[in-house]
Write a structure and sequence with these properties.
Layout: H1 4-8, E1 24-25, H2 35-39, H3 50-65, E2 74-80, H4 83-94, E3 100-105, H5 108-120, E4 123-128, H6 137-146, E5 152-156, E6 158-159, E7 164-165, H7 168-177, E8 181-185, E9 204-208, E10 219-225, H8 226-231, H9 243-253, H10 262-277, H11 280-301, E11 317-321, H12 330-339, E12 342-343, E13 345-346, E14 354-358, H13 365-382, H14 391-401
Parallel strand pairs: 1-12, 3-4, 3-5, 5-8, 8-9
Antiparallel strand pairs: 2-10, 6-7, 9-10, 11-14, 13-14
Helix pairs in contact: 3-10, 4-5, 6-7, 11-13, 12-13
Length: about 400
């Protein structure tokens, strides 16, 4: 059930609107950032300078603090590029060339991990759950028991194709019990959904600057056990995506090996400070959860139906079925929403038509109420008097309940 406590709690003061009046990005990243984060990019930095080296050190230290690593067993390695660069770096560095990966896929990003392994020439097998069904611990256990060649498992923490929050803790338990190693793509969840190393055992995870920390695009980061980082020496297929080489160089010199996104790092430091001031993972997660609860409740009042039942809804992004009404056209709905100040996201489901509304970024429950109002107005302008989905959509959702 969505939290009644969240819906009924006292409202916080509204967050400032985007200073330039640009639309809110209701997407899983890039996302709406604060004015202070943007302003942090107004200064130039020398990548070799001591001040910037200090920023890199602070970045790594603050990110590690979010993992709950009290035993100093992990380290943080930033990697230039988008989140997919960091995923490829993780797979190419931590999976030996004679290793084999079990890929848990229930959307585009699990399938992209499998595609990456093809490019890397790493053996792998896939549990493909389709568009949205979650991979479960017993399935993973059975696959590991059946194939002793599997050395690693990669799981997507939040699959933004559907908005599902996958049961990573359940998966981690069976992977560890069978002596295999878990890799986690927490691209869109880290910083708002707990991923504590004392509770969820993983060898490495990746995320990105422009997700729940609310920075801007330009780098991802790998957080991994130090013994795994040591073992990764010489494994990588790529000079620029070699996590061990980047780690060793940063620890020796304090610098990135190749030109870093200096302005992005400066913005991220400010974003990390705002994240801490909000209460860290718990505080950020609470705001996003409230965003989701307010928005989903309002959209359901308009007649929209979510793809997922409440149990599986993440606080990151929510998938809604397109209305069955003949006057509904997503492209026009998108344009009408944008005209009202909100950029939503197309759906990625293959079985039924859908769209997605993100809950992350510098926005709050006040904004989400305006999103619902804008959706209602847009339906009226299209001549859509009911947002009920087609019967086929509800049939698909029943599969998840089963």
């Amino acid at each position: 059930m969505l939290s009644d406590q969240n819906l009924a709690s006292a409202e916080a003061a509204p967050l400032p609107a985007p200073a330039l009046g640009e639309p809110y990005l209701l997407t899983p990243g890039p996302l709406t950032t604060s004015r202070e984060v943007k302003e942090a990019m107004l200064r130039d930095w020398g990548s070799w300078d001591g001040d910037f080296r200090g920023m890199t050190s602070e970045l790594r230290r603050r990110l590690l603090a979010l993992t709950g690593d009290t035993k100093d067993e992990f380290d943080c390695v930033p990697i230039q590029g988008s989140g997919s660069f960091a995923v490829e770096a993780m797979l190419g560095s931590f999976v030996p060339r004679d290793g084999k990966v079990l890929v848990l896929a229930n959307g585009a990003y699990g399938l992209r991990a499998a595609q990456t392994l093809v490019y890397l020439g790493r053996a792998h097998t896939v549990i493909d759950k389709g568009d949205y069904l979650p991979p479960r611990g017993d399935e993973v256990a059975a696959a590991l028991d059946a194939d002793p060649a599997i050395t690693h498992v990669i799981a997507i923490h939040c699959e933004t194709s559907s908005g599902i929050l996958n049961p990573v803790a359940e998966i981690a338990e069976v992977v560890h019990a069978r002596g295999r190693k878990l890799l986690v793509d927490s691209m869109s969840a880290f910083g708002a959904v707990p991923l504590d190393v004392s509770e969820i055992r993983y060898a490495a995870m990746v995320s990105s600057a422009n997700k729940c920390i609310e920075g801007v695009p330009g780098f991802g980061f790998v957080i991994a056990r130090k013994d795994e980082l040591e073992a990764a020496k010489g494994r990588s297929h790529s000079i620029s995506l070699d996590v061990h080489a980047q780690w060793a160089h940063m620890n020796k010199t304090g610098q990135w090996r190749f030109t870093p996104p200096t302005h992005v790092v400066a913005a991220f430091i400010e974003a990390l400070r705002q994240h801490a001031a909000e209460g860290g993972v718990a505080g950020r997660g609470a705001r996003y959860t409230k965003n989701r609860d307010v928005m989903v409740a309002g959209m359901r009042e308009l007649g929209f139906e979510t793809l997922l039942k409440d149990r599986w809804l993440s606080p990151i992004i929510v998938t809604f079925f397109n209305p069955a009404h003949p006057n509904f056209d997503f492209e026009r709905f998108y344009d009408l929403m944008k005209d009202k100040g909100f950029i939503i996201y197309p759906g990625k489901l293959t079985v039924v038509d859908s769209f997605r509304v993100g809950c992350i970024g510098r926005m709050d429950e006040h904004v989400m109420r305006r999103v619902v109002e804008a959706a209602g107005q847009s339906l009226k302008e299209m001549g859509v008097d009911t947002a009920a989905p087609p019967e086929a959509a509800l049939t698909e959702r029943a599969k998840l309940a089963a």
